[in-house]
Design goal:
This protein is α+β, with helices and mostly antiparallel strands. It has one domain: 2-Layer Sandwich (HIT family, subunit A). The protein has three helices and five strands. Strands 1-2-3-5-4 form a five-stranded antiparallel β-sheet, with helices on one face. A hairpin with a 7-residue loop joins strand 2 and strand 3. It is globular. The termini are far apart. The structure holds guanosine-5'-monophosphate (5GP). Guanosine-5'-monophosphate (5GP) binds next to loops. This is HIT domain-containing protein.
Length: 126
């Protein structure tokens, strides 16, 4: 099992505050395991975020420390959110930034959903 996967979780991060209801969000979906909402600074016509309710820094942390039910719950919520946003049929992209090279800004695991137009190449060629 990987060991170096858990930076300390910062409970003041913006998504923890959204989960606690301290900051509003444009909610799309929620259940026992996850919350989905629109990104405040959309990078595509549709840009949503799906986050687990548990305190996990990133996917690296989540896949080691979360329960099977939490892991299943997050991915099911991603699929449900895509359906609710009518992204499934035209197609969409999911992405999760992890750590420094991933350019992760908010240290609470989140899955981005992008859609609403042709998304082009997977990564910029820089
Ligand atoms: P990261 O770079 O960590 O993968 O992405 C963080 C995302 O969170 C960014 O797309 C950013 O626009 C979004 N974001 C940051 N603060 C807020 C906020 O207060 N509300 C919402 N809805 N999104 C936020």
């Amino acid at each position: 099992m990987p060991v170096n996967t858990r930076d300390p979780y910062d409970p003041t991060n913006i998504f923890a505050r959204i989960l606690r209801g301290e900051i509003p969000c444009r909610e799309i979906y929620q259940d026992a395991h996850a919350l989905a909402f629109h990104d405040i600074n959309p990078q595509a016509p549709v840009h949503a975020l799906v986050i687990p309710r548990g305190a996990y820094v990133s996917l690296a942390d989540f896949t080691v420390h979360a329960s099977d039910a939490e892991i299943a719950g997050l991915w099911r919520a991603v699929g449900i959110t895509a359906d609710l946003l009518a992204l499934t049929d035209p197609g969409y992209r999911i992405l999760s930034n992890i750590g420094g090279h991933g350019h992760q800004e908010v240290p609470h695991l989140h899955v981005h959903l992008f859609g609403g137009r042709q998304l082009g190449a997977m990564l910029p060629r820089t």
